[in-house]
Structure formats: structure tokens, C-alpha cells
Write a structure and sequence with these properties.
The complex is a heterodimer of chains A (74) and B (117). By secondary structure, chain A is α+β, with helices and mostly antiparallel strands. Chain A has a single domain, classed as TusA-like domain (Translation Initiation Factor IF3). Chain A is 28% helix and 36% strand. Chain A is built from two helices and four strands. Chain A has a four-stranded mixed β-sheet, covered by helices on one side. Chain B has a single domain (3-116), classed as DsrEFH-like (Hypothetical Protein Ychn, Chain: A, 3-Layer(aba) Sandwich), CATH 3.40.1260. Chain B has helices at residues 13-28, 49-52, 61-70, 80-84, 101-107; strands at residues 3-8, 32-37, 74-78, 96-99, 113-116. In chain B, α4 links the parallel β3 (74-78) and β4 (96-99). In chain B, α1 packs across α3. The two termini of chain B are 23 Å apart. Classes of the chains: A alpha+beta (74), B alpha/beta (117). At the A-B interface, α1 and α2 of A face α1 and α3 of B.
Chain lengths: 74, 117
Amino acid sequence: MATKTLDTLGLKCPQPILKVATLAPQMQPGDILEVAADCESFPKDIKAWATRTGKTLLFCTDEGGGKYKAQIQF
Amino acid sequence: MAKVAITVNGTEPKNVFPPFILGSSAVSLGDEVVIFFCPGGAPAMVKGVIEKMEGKGLPNLLALVEGVRALGGKIYVCELALGAKDLKKEDFRDGVEIIGATTFIDEIKDATITFSF
């Protein structure tokens, strides 16, 4: 199991989710993707993406200053 | 999985950003996406046009267009645009296909979500 990080700070909706979706085929089952984002809609969007694609959203935390950190397990 | 069909009939940012914001969101979720540029919107798909288009507070349009393509979305231009806008097939950006209205309508017969901009 590998953990990858994805920095989407500064990118506007829907670019962070698009980046997650583009990276997804490289992930193996069990791998974890940690995403940093600062777009307002990110917490709801990443939850919707994980639900629709059958991945596990381990957490999405508010890091303060408009930044969020999420971990998705594939 | 949804099938999203979007038509575009203008070349202003208000016409061109929404199809790619919504289209890239849909392909990200695994939905099928078909974007059809009518003659009024077709000049936006000419090489180099997307690269120059930006809007305050909006995402990078080129990244969205490339994302739609990378995740399997289809981008079509109506063949009537060739005569209506004096354009040639080779004027359009890579990955854009010229098709007729009948083919588009046939392809989206099972679309579950439609938009027009």
C-alpha cells in the first residue's frame, strides 16, 4: 500500500476533483491519496466523488485559513 | 452512471466555461459526456482560442478541456460551422471531431442530463 499526495492549493472548482479523477487509474486497491485543497466546495465535492466512484473517504478536515486536507483510500 | 449532453452556441466565456466546468465534473464522476458546438460556438474550438480565454475567479479552461478529453469525454463541432464560419477541419484543436446533427442526435438518444449554453 502506497500513500500519494496531491497538492491542489490555488486551483478552482472543479480542477481539484478533476486532478483526483485523472490520478485515480494509477492508484492500486488499498493505496491512499492525500489531497490538499483550498476551494470552497472541496469537502462536499470530494465526498460526492468518493461515494459515486466507490472509494473510501477516510477524512476531510478543515485545516484553517480556507484549507482542507482529505485522505481517500482506493 | 449518467450520460450528459451539452450544446454550445456562443463563443463568450459565459458560453464556453460552463460546458467544460460541468463536463469535467461529470467525467470525473465517471459519467459519459458529449459536448456539441453549434456553428455559433464553433470558433471557440479553433486552435489557440481556449488558451487565451480566462475569467476572474474561474478555473483554468485549458486544464478542463484537456481533462474532459483525458477522461473520455467527446467534443464535437457541427459540420455546418465549416461553411457558416469559413473554417476548415484543420483549424480545429486536436481531439475535436466534426459531425452532423443527425449523428449527434443519434448519439445522445439515451442522454439523461442535457444543458445548452
